Amino acid sequence: MSGQRYTLPAVVLHWAQAVVVIWLLWLGWTMVDLPKGAERSAAYSLHKSLGLLALLLIVARLAWRRGHPAPKALATGWEARLATATHHALYALLFLAPMAGFLASSFTPYAIKFFGIELPKLGWPDEALNSLFKQLHLAFVWGLASLIGLHIAGALKHLLKRDGTLQRMLPGRLFSN
Ligand code: HEM
Ligand code: HEM
Questions:
Q1: CATH code of the region 8-169
Q2: pTM for the full model?
Q3: Cβ(24) to ligand 1 under 6 A?
Q4: Which residues are within 8 A (CB) of 133 and not within 5 positions of it... i.e. 6 or more apart?
């Protein structure tokens, strides 16, 4: 079975990150419409903490992936190429989106906290740079959301075909092929 499915750490990291990133998309889009006040500040602060957790998770995922390559694609031809390209673009945006968010927050007068722990900032209060990184954050986040939509549609197609692709990303002992 080894070499035909993802390793358990890869599976755990995939699903932990899927939950965190979908939560972040929902939180991001709802928090920006909240009126100024305690609820908005709490939502922004949770968004930053979860966003930094997503950044940690992608670093862990990429580090694990270096030593444990993905199993060979089950599909062939254009479908395999599209899946590989989507996975690579997802990895890139999963790094770039939170980095742009972190940089946007770095160029403000406010502290950046990771679940209460204050982090060093990568910048100084500067409205122009804050706005530039906010726009980049928004562009990367839209790209990420679109690719996640494509990725989930692909996963559903495999589920309907029952070709075993989904099982490769589920814990082996619970769901064996
Ligand atoms: C309902 C939600 C999801 C389902 C059913 C799902 C399913 C899967 C499956 C079955 C694979 C393995 C594909 C293969 O063997 O070729 C996979 C890979 C992957 N998924 Fe998801 N996924 C979901 C959500 C997400 C989300 C939200 C993200 C981004 C945060 C994501 C990122 C990735 C990445 C980057 C890979 C490539 C792994 C690698 O080859 O190293 N997935 N997913
Ligand atoms: C994968 C990780 C992340 C995702 C998916 C994500 C998603 C989002 C989304 C959907 C929005 C709303 C955009 C809009 O409609 O204006 C947003 C806004 C924002 N995000 Fe993130 N985010 C992530 C990581 C981070 C991180 C790490 C930080 C900072 C430490 C951050 C800081 C912000 C800030 C300050 C805004 C508000 C921008 C504004 O007021 O216009 N985000 N994010």
A1: 1.20.950.20
A2: 0.94
A3: no
A4: 100, 101, 103, 104, 106, 107
